Amino acid sequence: MGSSHKKFSFKRKQVVLLLLFLIVGSLVFVEFFTGIRWQKESEDALYKDATRSTQERVDDLLSRMTTDEKIGQMALVEQNSILLRSDIARFGLGALLSGGGGGPDENTQEGWLTMVNDFQERAKSSRLGIPLLYGVDAVHGHSNVFGATIFPHQIGLGASADADLVRRIAVITAEEMITTGTNWNFSPTADVVQDIRWGRTYETFGADTKLVEDLTTAYVEGLHSLSIVGTAKHYLGSGAMEWGTSTNPGYQIDQGVITIDEAVLRSTHLPPFARAIDAGVGSIMVSHASWNDVELTTSHMWLTDILKGELSFQGFVVSDWYSVFDIPGDKYDALVTAVNAGVDMVMLPYEYRLFATHMRRAVDEGDISMDRLNDAVQRILRIKFEAGLFDNQTISDADIRTFGSIEHKEVAREAVRKSLVLLKDAQQILPISKETPRILVAGDSADNLGRQAGGWTIEWQGIDGNWIPGTTILQGIEDAVSSETNVEYRQAGDFPLGTELADVGIVIVGETPYAEGVGDNEHPELSAEDLEVIDRVRAISKTIIVILVSGRPLDVSPYVNDWDALVTVWLPGSEGGGVADVLFGDYPFTGKLPLEWPL
Ligand code: GLC
Predict the structure, then answer these.
(1) Is residue 321 lining ligand 1, measured as CB closer than 6 Å?
(2) Roughly how many angstroms between the first and final C-alpha of the chain, as a whole number?
(3) In 3D, which of 60, 74, 143 has the Cα closest to residue 103?
(4) Separation of alpha carbons 472 and 414, rounded Å
(5) Residue 407: in which H helix or E strand, if any?
(6) Element (H, E) at 489
(7) Which of 10, 98, 142, 241 could lock onto 176 through a cystine, CB 3.0 to 4.6 A?
(8) Pseudo-torsion of CA 84, 147, 149, 173, nearest 10°?
């Protein structure tokens, strides 16, 4: 064969090799940046077979996972912190979350569904196609999402003491979550509040352990009836932190120190979590507090010995926001300590690349055993299988029509009615007649949906003012009275001088929205301006009714003797019409204080 022919065949080989290199290189490039895994698991793999038992599916999937894929499942990342969407498949992330206000730019049901579906597609493009848990704080309805039904916060549900109502609210919340693709609710709060100066008082069902147990259980049952993963939080004893001990410089009591002894922790604060476990709660979120100089996030006694040992918790333990990396000292040591203590999923919520590096080192060097890694991952996988994440979940138009529906709002209005507590009515002036000729209404919280809803509504801290759909308390009053009745409203109560005495004056005041430690307050009370408004209206009304919109008891004892009636509506949410339903006698007052309110 001539040399030219040889040269030609050599060149041809070079071209073939170059082409092969380019093809393989491009495949690797695409896999790296898109997360698509060319060697995906076969469709007939046992774990994909919905007819097999959960345990069989967990065992099969676990046996197929690499160490890095196992580590990825333990990461819970805030969606805005995802640097490259391909990272979801590349790191095999187990879960994403939207913190308060952390939704999509288009904050609608459809916008959320599009966002979550895209994340899920990314996750399913990975080699094993493990779906994501997507967590939200749907703590009083799916309250991050514009247009969702906004229920009274838990403290008002505590006043209702109605477990069936709470269960129905949880079902509705689950229905509205399903329309957005979210499948994990960081709710209910199972804390038993002992100090109302705590900014999270309104997130609890109150100060009575049995009441908290019963309502926590009902809420978990409601979520699980529609396969939404519930979260009993914040394990444990957050309601008993000491004022002035917060480790967060901006707070006073939240993220503070718990000083009560083990016996009280067990008798007062543990039972709601034990009942939630019996009800099959999928996850338990660890408190950001510390006890006996130990961060609960690193307490092997509470997270493993008691929770997973004594109480046989089969779900997974999730740490609270940044609470692992908040542990003083080296982040590697903090992560190793927390995982070995019993944390199964780490709410990072930012640094997932650092997490992956540290975890791989810890497992390779034996600081975290493969048994501990497998235990954490199989707990997470079990909950994912039980929630049906691996099996086709379609959302119908009928599902989507439930979002913010009239039927849902009616239940929210029922909850408002049942949450009202009559604190004073010495002269039995309530209910007010719908034929009352002239009613004055005033106060900063009379026509303000943001104050009715409080924190964890659209934004983490809530939004003062009328930014969400709903009915204000004032609108409810105007809708309730007869056509002959004259309702006059002035926010500041500055009605024209010489106004003849009105038959009834109603002043609606209280707290501005807040969440967590931002709401820590050494003396919850009305402002001087609020008290002035009350006095102005009192001076020109035959009877004066004060309505408080707040997340906790306010100290009104110095003034209450000057008022004819006093009602707390707590944080009623979007359906303010429920207040008038009771004020004007369509329904009786049935709510009872879920904690002490000194008057
Ligand atoms: C917060 C809260 C917790 C919430 C989580 C996610 O810091 O402590 O209740 O579920 O972070 O938003």
Answers:
(1) yes
(2) 109
(3) 143
(4) 15
(5) helix 406-419
(6) strand 486-489
(7) 142
(8) -30
For ligand 1, mutation pick of 139, 185, 186 (most atoms within 8 Å of CB): 186
Cis preceding-peptide flag for 249 (omega within 30 of 0): no
Architecture of the domain defined by 47-398: Alpha-Beta Barrel (3.20)
Taking the CA of residue 231 as reference, the ligand 1 atom at the shortest distance is 10
Closest approach atom of ligand 1 to CA 99 = 12
Ligand 1 touching residue 233 (CB < 6 A): yes
- Global pTM reads 0.94
Residue 237, Ramachandran bin (φ over 0: left; ψ between -120 and 50: alpha; else beta): left
Query: Phi, psi at residue 77, to the nearest 5°?
Result: -120, 140
Closest residue by CA, ligand 1 atom 6? 99
What would the pLDDT profile of 230-243 be if each residue is shown by its tens digit?
999 999 999 999 99
Q: Whose CA is closest to 215, among 166, 251, 283, 279? A: 166
Query: CA–CA separation, 227 vs 328, rounded Å?
Result: 37
Ligand 1 pocket member 99 (CB < 6 A)? yes
pLDDT in tens, 7-25: 656 677 787 777 777 766 6
β-pairing, 565-568 vs 421-425, is antiparallel
Q: Tell me the two tokens of residue 70.
A: 């196992």
320 in active site: yes
Q: How many residues can be counted in the chain? A: 599
Nearest CA to ligand 1 atom 7: 321
Q: Which of 77, 79, 96, 137 to mutate to test the pocket of ligand 1 (most atoms within 8 A of CB)?
A: 137
Concatenated DSSP letters for 250-298? T-SSTT-EE-S-HHHIIIIISHHHHHHHHTT-SEEEEPS-EETTEEGGG
Instruction: Please give the Cα distance from 239 to 555 (Å, whole number).
Output: 20
| Closest listed residue to residue 507, CA positions, set 497, 492, 495, 496 | 492
Is 488 designated active site? no
Q: What CATH architecture is 408-583?
A: 3-Layer(aba) Sandwich (3.40)
Burial class (CB in 10 A: 0-12, 13-18, 19+), 429: middle
User: How do strand 565-568 and strand 346-347 relate by DSSP bridges?
Assistant: unpaired
Q: Whose CA is nearest to atom 11 of ligand 1?
A: 321
Q: Which residue among the candidates 320, 367, 459, 530 is catalytic per the annotation?
A: 320
Mean pLDDT of successive 10-residue stretches along the chain, which has 599 residues: 57 77 63 54 90 98 98 98 97 97 97 98 96 98 98 99 98 98 98 98 98 98 98 98 96 97 98 98 98 97 98 98 95 98 98 98 98 98 98 88 97 98 96 98 98 98 97 98 98 87 98 98 98 97 98 98 98 98 98 97
* Residue to substitute in 320, 460, 461 for testing ligand 1 pocket (most ligand atoms within 8 angstroms of CB): 320
Residue type, 465: G
